[in-house]
């Protein structure tokens, strides 16, 4: 398969894309800067890690599946160009991994974590500490975020223009 240097945007939401396909894409479309695989039931953490570590120009990445338990930590720490993360129906299994990911994605401008299990005040504080240039934060469906976490983010993220906390128990 030829290398396609011109392809920069690839949205595969709700398709049957699998890890082998993600591997082929990562090897043959090195200049991708926007990828979304939300709702892809055959994509696993292995494929996501391969894609995000190979596509070094990636600025937007969307993932999530209600079919399997994907972790936000499948996103490679080497993906330092990320500015937008959209994760749905995933999990945060470790605050240490969140620390590593957000420290490597210090240019992050927008983060959408919808129905992410394990999202709590400490996770919000880690994001706020490492992503001070954050402009848009959307955290929906978490019962573990309190006013304390929200206040911390508002103090740390001075460029924040949009904060959405839909279905959160404050």
Automatic annotation (TrEMBL):
User: Which SUPFAM superfamilies does the entry link to?
Assistant: RNI-like
Q: Which domain of life is it from?
A: Eukaryota
- Protein name, as recorded: FBXL2_20
| Organism (species) | Mytilus coruscus (Sea mussel)
């Amino acid at each position: 398969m030829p290398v396609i240097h011109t392809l920069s945007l690839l949205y595969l939401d709700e398709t049957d894309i699998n890890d082998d396909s993600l591997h082929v894409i990562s090897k043959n479309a090195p200049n991708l800067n926007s990828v979304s695989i939300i709702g892809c039931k055959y994509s696993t953490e292995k494929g996501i890690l391969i894609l995000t570590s190979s596509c070094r120009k990636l600025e937007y990445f969307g993932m999530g599946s209600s079919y399997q338990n994907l972790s936000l930590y499948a996103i490679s720490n080497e993906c330092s160009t990320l500015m937008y993360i959209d994760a749905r129906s995933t999990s945060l299994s470790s605050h240490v991994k969140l620390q590593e990911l957000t420290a490597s994605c210090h240019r992050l401008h927008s983060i959408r974590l919808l129905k992410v299990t394990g999202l709590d005040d400490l996770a919000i504080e880690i994001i706020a500490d490492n992503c001070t240039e954050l402009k848009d934060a959307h955290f929906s469906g978490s019962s573990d975020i309190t006013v304390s976490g929200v206040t911390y983010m508002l103090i740390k993220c001075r460029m924040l223009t949009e904060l959405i906390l839909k279905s959160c128990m404050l």
